[in-house]
Amino acid sequence: MSANPETTPDQSDFMECYRGRQSAVHHAAYLRMAKVLLALEVCARAGVRLEGKDIFDYGFGAGTFFRYCARDSRLFGVEMDRENVGAVEEMLRERGYQNLDLQTIDIARWTEHPLLGRKYDVILCSHVLEHLPDPAGFLKRIGECLHPAGVFIGLVPLNEIIMDPHHVQRLNEAKIRAFVESAGLRVTTYMEADPWLYWFQPLFTRDRGWVHQLAQVVSLGLGLPATLLGPRLWFALGRCFAFLTRSKPVQAAFILARP
Hints:
about 260 residues; Rossmann fold; seven-stranded mixed β-sheet; alpha/beta; globular
């Protein structure tokens, strides 16, 4: 989701990409679960608990992260596709979540959205910053939505062999820390993980065709065992996999707080 759509590549593929994809199999796909597992792992390392919290997911996609939040959490989020927003809300209510406020967002006026007038205990932005021409400006604005003791959880891609055509930032730890410092926030936890897709990463830069279909097979093939094993064991196995295959981590996760 871009803060300035006039200066970014076409993002229209994301408008309808989650429609009709709310089955358990879809939620187990690795492109979803890898992000959720890493978010849960960085929370565990930092001692961030999600129970009873006001949680805001900026760009919640198919809502997979919400499925791993406590039932007593109050869930807020924005996405572009109205049909998808309705489907995610229906899915969550069927799973017993009652405290929901999910809304569509007009990216051209994102800073004025009413949900950005609230304060939150936890804000998640998963694979958002790489789409933005001004990540520091985004972090500064979104940081204003944190309670004094609140935390921001960010996830971004790393070590792209072929840069995704939808991305405008090629990120690394130094760039992330520079954006955070410029935004007036501080990094409390930083980790790099998830080598599993390193050599497969070029497959996921295609939106259509047989290469895209192969990428979906790979995503499902990894997603099912990752879902069953959980974050701690999956990332421990990932360190062994990285050593044996010389794979680099494809994601970074970090937690930010106000000074």
